Amino acid sequence: MNSSTQLCTIEGPVGTLEVAIDEPEGECRGVAVLSHPHPLFGGSLSNKVVQTLARAYVQQGWRAVRFNFRGVGRSAGAHDGGVGELDDLLAVVQAHAPSGPLSLAGFSFGAFVTSHAVTRLHGSRTLAQVLLVGTAASRFDVAPIPAELHARTLVIHGEADDTVPLASVLDWARPQHLPVVVVPGVAHFFHGQLPLLKALAVRHLAA
């Protein structure tokens, strides 16, 4: 976590939600809300992939808001298979980005939850960017991305991902004709390739 990261809590659907905020230098373009990987397998707001995406957002002038799903860290409640976690994400959006430019990003289980947040918010909020990394399509029912958002959506997956096979993500993306950026030889957690992941995210956010 960055030394300048602000830690706070908000009132979530079942109690306290722990939140970490990183501010950009200069003018803020908007708020990005980032979701972490599976809570039952060590996922939290301090996950390195999520922190990497947060740094990419901050570099591009966004306020990056990470949070712990219910039952993780100082967040109250218990794991709810994605249903309650969606409510957690929407509560963070309401608390920290009730209006103005909004971007959503998620890694693994967090990408699954983010996909449903995109579906829920589409039509009522303008989503400037969507980032999905290591999307857990083999393990959960990931929501399709609305066609109008395809040009603003970046899906990144490692070719050698043994947690979520690339084939499952392609099967999810194929009916939508949604492009997937495949990083050759990279596993689920992007070990040794986090700078590349950040560069891909920065390039998308700068477009």
Entry keywords:
207 residues, alpha/beta, Rossmann fold, eight-stranded mixed β-sheet, 8 strands, 29% helix
What would you note in describing this structure?
The protein has one domain (6-206): 3-Layer(aba) Sandwich (Rossmann fold). The mean pLDDT is 97. It has 207 residues and is an alpha/beta fold. The protein has five helices and eight strands. The relative contact order is 0.15. Helix 1 packs parallel to helix 5 and helix 2 (83-96) packs across helix 3. The protein is globular, with a radius of gyration of 15 Å.
- The amount of helix comes to 25-40%
- Reading side by side through the largest sheet, how are the strands ordered? 1-2-4-3-5-6-7-8
Give me the count of strands.
Answer: 8
Shape: globular
Instruction: Write down the secondary-structure element order.
Output: EEEHEHEHEEHEH
End-to-end separation: 27 Å
CATH superfamily: Alpha/Beta hydrolase fold, catalytic domain
The gyration radius over C-alpha positions equals: 15 Å
Reported for the largest beta sheet, the result is: 8 strands, mixed
Unreliable stretches: none
Amount of beta strand: 15-25%
- CATH topology name, in short, is Rossmann fold
Structure, briefly:
This protein has 207 residues and is of the alpha/beta class. The protein contains five helices and eight strands; from the N terminus they run E-E-E-H-E-H-E-H-E-E-H-E-H.
